[in-house]
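The freezer alarm interrupted the setup, so I double-checked each line after restarting. Inputs confirmed:
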Amino acid sequence: MARTAAPVYDPQAIEPKWRDAWKKAGLFRVSEDAGKPKFYNLVMFPYPSGPLHMGHFRNYVMGDAFARYKVMRGFNVLNPFGWDAFGLPAENAAIQSGIPPRVSIEGNIAISKHELDLMGVLYAWDREVTTCNQDYYRWTQWLFLKFLEWGLAYKQKAAVNWCPKDNTVLANEQIVNGVCWRCGTKPTKKELEQWFFKITAYAQRLLDDLKKLDRWPDRVRVMQANWIGRSEGAELDFAVEGDGSLRVFTTRPDTVFGATFMVIAPEHELVQKIVTPNHRRNVDDYIEKTKGETEIERLSTEHEKTGVFTGAYAINPFTDERIPIWIADYVLATYGTGAIMGVPAHDARDFEFARKYQLPIREVISPSLQPSGGALDAAFETYDGFLVNSGPYSGLSVKDGIAKIIADAERRGIGKRMITFRLRDWLISRQRYWGVPIPVIYCPDHGIVPVPSDQLPVRLPEHVEFRSDGQNPLLHTPSFVNTTCPKCGKPARRETDTMDTFVDSSWYFLRYTSAGYEQGPFDKAKADYWMPVDQYIGGIEHAILHLLYSRFFMKALYDAKMVSVDEPFAALFSQGMIQRNGAVMSKSKGNGVVPDDIVAHYGADTGRVYELFLGPPDQDAEWNDRGVDGVARFLHRVWRLIIGEEDEVIAGAGPASVEDLSRKRHETIDKVTRDVDAFHFNTAMSALMELANAMQDYLQAGGQRNEAWDSVCRDMTRLLGPFAPHLAEELWQRQGGEGLVVFQRWPEVDAVQLRRPQVTVVVQVDGRLRDRIEMPSGIDEADARARAQESANVQRALGRRAVRRAVYVPDRLINLVTE
RNA sequence: GCGGCUGUGGUGAAAUUGGUAAACACGCUAGGUUCAGGGCCUAGUGGGCGCAAGCCCUUGAAGGUUCAAGUCCUUUCAGCCGCACCA
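Predicted 3D structure, all chains:
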């Protein structure tokens, strides 16, 4: 159709022009004092590892579309971007190729910026943050010193996870499926002096406040709750025969009468004290053996439980029985007290252990008030039961037994109620070069001395020698290591460890609110205006790591009154990944689609709309090259509908109704608005396609390009604004619109035009569809029923049966029930 | 083992939150187009029966609640993800 002299849609010809126009107009250049409601829109900043592909862009396109939408909705939108630029990949590249990290990082940033620009993805570039720049990491160091001052940073010798390939320690959160999150190597254990952040001090609040995050995906909240891992129970003291006592943690103090042995971790400090001379050899051999095991071997559920008797005995404080103390590697030194009471009848692990070593199994919880008697063939672990064989406590329910035994232990001074968390403190030291230097100095006289904050930043030397053995080059850079003590001026040594890059990303969203601020990490007034982030968008892989650390930072800063809200991200959206040929799109797999190709073949807008259309944004989706063609056809059709001049009328296409078209327009506005608010971009794109189809039907039925038509075209153009922004601008200009589309008001739904004069009412007989009848909207039940019963189809279905009652859903459905 | 999510056409998926299952798009079939093309237009496209009007079946499986179930409940199967000897 549209055989006209009108120009064809040529994306490559129009797109660059509009990108310049947005920059010139200062899109996303914002300040705090605008008389509009604020909206902080944020996508997770990337590690600049190289060219971006369309898999990455799903995130950025959604963020850009949402930011543009919020601008059109009248918000003062902060939409910043930056680079998480410290970290191992750049350092490893330097070791291999000799290119200094800063050089490769800056090159990658330039490429990425070019690609973002090409796709029409625009940010508040005047607020750009790069974590490896001194004006940023200076404040990361400053915050470290604050944490030190607040008692939230400390140094301690600990058995830590060591990645032999990356030559550095790892936080617990960075062991994923038992291997290094970055390189997949099995970590080993090392005893090292390391810096920690005391995230455990916030365990309860980090757990409680998950409830406040009602606009976060449930799965992320559940993952964080599991990671924090709160257990309620008690600590109980068991006297050690001869001397001292052994403290255990248990969630089931009600089972204490069934404790027939004790188990302590091989690393437990009491082991050497209690072991008897004739068992020492066995115990030492066992400890030696478990040291050689990797963490994964030891923590595997399939790992058969082993242990040895220490020769020592404890006294069960409730039964006064003498019970043997064992060591076994299924008890972890780092959880609870590193010791347990073995209750084989009511704990599957203890049951397995007792069977193997022929330790007594005594039933103390029964489903009824009587012991079930006989030998148990598995541990009875539920909380649904009663205490038996438990002296004065027999007959109590589990719940009452727990309360009473804790109360008695507290009264006797041999125990107390206790809550334990699985969460461990955050290990932040890294024995690597390309990171923020930890700003402390070791003085022979004064020990650990923080670098005074007016001497920040501690500069990371940028000309260092990379070593093939993977050792931190800072160790071999005398100009960095050798310094003087800030307290006494005597020669001293600088800390050569750098910080985990997750420290950098734990506060970058605050820096955006006042990038370039020189009196502190951020300007409190500006942070107060912008925070919290109203919409955060990023990958699910950060469900625990980055999102937990950032929450911890925000709470620490809140307690120090540096910020006024204690949660950083009010709403979170975790987008799914894009796959192609059955694998996640990536450079290394060679299945990436690069934006340059998409832009050259189809234009940026087609790539953008396709990424929004291809599936539910929170689920993984398969990239389909043919699907892109479908979206390209849609955008070309929109162009022809709005710019074309002659229209082919199809005979028999029915009457053209401008009222129907206008109603479809308002239905579309309504649908797109609700969908975008809910992040249902895929169905929003479908709705726009439906409107285009309706516009085409109208013209083919002989509809005129009159005033009403033009109005629909203008609304269609504005609705396309956030998603296909270049096309929308061009169409807007060609329709004689003033200014830029992105600064137009988002179309409003007209409730009057939305109303249909006629509705299609579904008629059912006994719940089965029998007819569809056009009725005037608002028809009452009696009339609707009368009309339904006139239908020949309905009469045939009814036969001789009488209608006993009808269920009427106004304007939608009537069900005639015969029985 | 514990926790969470997902099962709908040949494919990606939709379904106003209990009210027309399969919108929108890909693919396919047929036709048209002064149609070079992967362009554009029209019609068709879950399965079965029927010349037709129409009828029956269909949302992993089996039950249940309801006038009405993809949606709620119970059981079950499959796949994915998180945690995993956490006492």
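Quick read of the result. The radius of gyration of chain A is 34 Å.
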